[in-house]
Amino acid sequence: MSTREPVWLRSSYSGSSGDNCVEVAAHQATVLIRDSKCTQKRPLSVSLAAWSAFTTLAAGSTV
Questions:
Q1: If we measure between CA atoms, which residue out of 36, 29, 18, 19 comes closest to residue 51?
Q2: Which run of H or of E encompasses 36?
Q3: CA pair distance 57, 23, nearest whole angstrom
Q4: How far apart, in Å, are the Cα atoms of 33 and each of 2, 5, 7, 9, 62?
Q5: Do 34 and 40 contact (CB within 8 A), yes or no?
Q6: What are phi and psi of 38, to 5 degrees?
Q7: Sign of dihedral through CA atoms 2, 39, 43, 35?
Q8: Alpha-carbon distance 24 to 45, whole Å?
Q9: Tell me: the pLDDT tens digits for 2-61?
């Protein structure tokens, strides 16, 4: 198991004010999702397949 800290990314659509942002990080075989205002809380963890399906649907495509 990796001991590295995840590298968190924020969408460029989030703006520069720092509010209402979701951050994601690839970590081992999962994608971690967290609220940028509450970084100390445990992030949501989803499978790569679930993240792929979500982003495909969010982009307006069909699975």
A1: 29
A2: none
A3: 18
A4: 18, 14, 11, 10, 22
A5: no
A6: -130, 60
A7: negative
A8: 10
A9: 568 899 998 777 766 666 788 999 988 899 999 888 889 999 999 999 999 999 998 886
Structure tokens at 25: 């990080």
Sequence ranges of the domains in the chain: 6-11+20-42
Q: Are 44 and 31 in contact (CB under 8 A)?
A: no
- Where is 53: in which H helix or E strand? helix 48-58
Other CB atoms within a 10 A radius of the CB of residue 34 amount to 20
C-beta separation of 54 from 43 below 8 A: no
At residue 27, what is the residue type?
H
Strand, coil or helix: what is 44?
strand
